[in-house]
Every structure is written in C-alpha cells, then in structure tokens.
From TrEMBL:
Family: Belongs to the LpxB family.
Its job: Condensation of UDP-2,3-diacylglucosamine and 2,3-diacylglucosamine-1-phosphate to form lipid A disaccharide, a precursor of lipid A, a phosphorylated glycolipid that anchors the lipopolysaccharide to the outer membrane of the cell.
Organism: Magnetofaba australis IT-1
UniProt name for this protein: Lipid-A-disaccharide synthase
One Gene Ontology term, aspect cellular component: membrane
Alphabetical UniProt keywords: Glycosyltransferase, Lipid A biosynthesis, Lipid biosynthesis, Lipid metabolism, Transferase
Length: 382
C-alpha cells in the first residue's frame, strides 16, 4: 500500500514502485497516487489533490472529506492486509494513517522526513512509536533522529540525476520560436490548486509589468501533471488577459534549462531549479492564519529547499506581502540586467548540487530488503 500526494511525492512513489516491481515480479499495490504512480502499476483509490492541502484553513474546510478518505483507506487496509504501508510525505495525513496501520499490525516505512528541523522538533521522538523506518532525502537529516530508536537512512535526492533537461537551451528556445536576444522567464506557480489560487496572479501581473519595460521578453508557465490548463485559467487575472504566455505541460526541466530567470513556488520546484542552475526568485503565499501561526513556530531562517540545503540565502525569497507584482518584477529585472547577480546565484546553485550527491543505497534497495525480511518472517511463522 502506497500513499502519496502532490507531484513531487508522486514522482518518488513511482520511482520506488518501479524498483520494487523489478525486485518482486507480480507485486500489486494500491493506495493514492498521481499519473506517474498509476503508470507504475498503482491502483489509486483517490485523486492525490484531495490530500494535498495547504494551511490550517484549507484543511478545516475539507476535513469531512479527509476523514472519509482516511476511514476508507483504513477499511481497505484491514480487508487486504498489505505486507507494508509506504507513506510518502504528507505527514499530517500519512502519520494518522500510519498509526492506524500499526494497530492493524501493518509495518510502515515513511519516505521524506517531516521538517522537524524547521518546527515541531519534539515530533522526532514520537515517530519511532509508529514508523519502522524513515527514508530521508537530505544528508543532514539522520543525525536529527539520533537517540530516538527510529532507523533513518539517507537515500539521496532522486532529483540529482532526474532534474535534467531533455532539450538543450538552444533547442528549447528554437521550439518556442524565440529570437536570440529575447529574455525567457519561466513561471512555476506550483502543483496544487491552493498554490495556483495564491501565486499565479502575482506572477502574471509581474510579467505584465516586465513586458511593458522589456517588450521582447517571453513568458512560459510549466504546468504540473497534477493540474490542467483550466485550473490555471480559473485564476488568470483580467489585467493579464492580453499577455502572451506559453503553457508547457510536463516540460519544467526544459523550460528551466532554457530560461534566463524564473519565478518559482516554494517547494520541491526550487530544488529542481537549483539543480538545473536556473536563476530564480522563490515566491510563496499562504492563508493569513497559517502564516501567523508559522511565524511563531518555524525555527529556520529560510523557507525554500534551495536555501536550506545551501545554508545561506542563495536565492531571494518573497513571502506573503512581499510576493507582489512590483517586487517580483524588480527581482526579475535584477537577474536580467545584472550579469554579476545572475552569475553569483548560479555559483551558489552549483554548490547545492554538490551537496546532494546520492549514496549507494537507494530507497528501493532499502524497502526491498525490509520486504524480504518481512516476507521471510511471515513464512517462518506459517
């Protein structure tokens, strides 16, 4: 049984499922996942967007549906008794399901450490009570769990080898019909409906302002595979109706590799942009209540994965009221007009890539070993 949510989680779940299917022919998996997980053989019982909610207010609004899904997944788990539950990210939902799994005698491996290093540090001690193993993406994370009794393995970040454009910068720009001197700006407003609702408008309005100053600037939106074009159009501001923008599905890496600068929603996409080396501005807005609570409890100086891995402010972060069209336009103007600023950011992004080298053991290898041991124990007891 595998549970994942947004695009980044679906990517990890699909990669893991492909490795497990190669190791265990005839393996069957059910749960929740997106297009990639389903292509890898997952029987997905719900759309992942139903689990990928941002902030307290959004969760409260959808709470009845979340409870219904939780109960249905628990019933399916009780009926089918999977050999293992793998939960991918989504800690607030998945940890509740993991606790239910433990009561049913189903072992649990969680993939992607929760950000206990950012807030709720006491949570690290509690995870050992309902997780059998934790797979971490960053090399600094296992040390956080020292002394908790929970096995934690750094499995490397799969994006180190996956976040690579398929087309060269020149080919991508030619495919877009760009002149050699035309600046290209990539817009990555997120992979969840809530992100689109909050981030698309300021990004597009910043693009309108920049186009007025630099008429030859070209804009393109990378459309996540958890969304469709209609979900973008529903939040398209009237002021940007006449703005020419390409919408590129499943082409984020090519776009980031070809762009001169990018506006990127905080999240995994900032790490992807960093690994590709795209100069960027990180943009994020959440519900006002969520932000007010977060300011009190978050204990790290940055919100973007790019800056957190670097341990310094390599890329600018525009949060809440700073994520406004005028500020974003100015940030883009700096990256376009100041070659030294862009070069300095690229150097910092290169250092991030060096820090995320993948260790020899993959997530698939660790989960396969766990399953072999689990199945061996079951056979010994029968």
């Amino acid at each position: 049984m595998i549970i994942s949510g947004e695009a980044s989680g679906d990517f990890l779940a699909a990669e893991l499922l492909n490795e497990l299917s190669a190791e265990f022919p005839g393996l069957t998996a059910f749960g929740v996942g997106g297009l990639k997980s389903r292509a890898a053989g997952l029987e997905s019982l719900y759309h992942p967007n139903e689990l990928s909610l941002i902030g307290l207010a959004e969760v409260v609004r959808h709470l009845p549906r979340l409870v219904s899904i939780m109960n249905a997944l628990t019933a399916r788990m009780r009926a089918d008794r999977p050999d293992l539950l793998v939960t991918v990210d989504l800690p607030d939902f998945n940890f509740r399901l993991a606790k239910r799994a433990k009561k049913l005698g189903v072992p649990v491996i969680h993939y992607v450490s929760p950000q206990v290093w950012a807030w709720r540090r006491g949570r690290a001690d509690k995870l050992a009570g309902f997780l059998d193993h934790l797979l971490a993406l960053f090399p600094f994370e296992p040390e956080i769990y020292a002394g908790t009794g929970l096995p934690v393995s750094f499995v490397g970040h799969p994006l180190v080898h996956r976040a690579q454009p398929k087309r060269s910068r020149e080919q991508m720009r030619a495919d877009l019909g760009l002149a050699d001197d035309a600046p290209l700006i990539a817009l990555l407003p997120g992979s969840r409906p809530g992100e689109i609702a909050r981030l698309l408008e300021p990004m597009l309005l910043a693009a309108v302002r920049l186009r007025m100053e630099k008429p030859n600037t070209y804009f393109a939106i990378a459309l996540a595979d958890t969304l469709d074009e209609a979900s973008l159009r529903a939040h398209w501001p009237a002021e940007a109706e006449s703005l020419s923008v390409s919408i590129i599905p499943n082409g984020a890496y090519d776009l980031l590799g070809a762009c001169d600068a990018a506006l990127v929603a905080s999240g995994t996409a900032t790490l992807e942009a960093a690994l590709i080396g795209a100069p960027m501005v990180v943009v994020y807005r959440v519900n006002a209540l969520t932000y007010a609570i977060g300011r009190r409890v978050i204990q790290v100086p940055y919100i973007s994965l790019a800056n957190l891995v670097a341990g310094e402010g390599v890329v600018p972060e525009r949060i809440q009221h700073e994520a406004n069209p005028d500020t974003l336009c100015q940030d883009l103007r700096t990256l376009l007009d100041d070659p030294q600023a862009a070069a300095q950011q690229r150097q910092g992004l290169a250092r991030i890539r060096q820090q995320l080298s993948t260790p020899p053991r993959t997530a698939g290898a660790i989960v396969s070993e766990f399953l072999h041991q689990q199945l061996g124990d079951i056979q010994e007891n029968t």
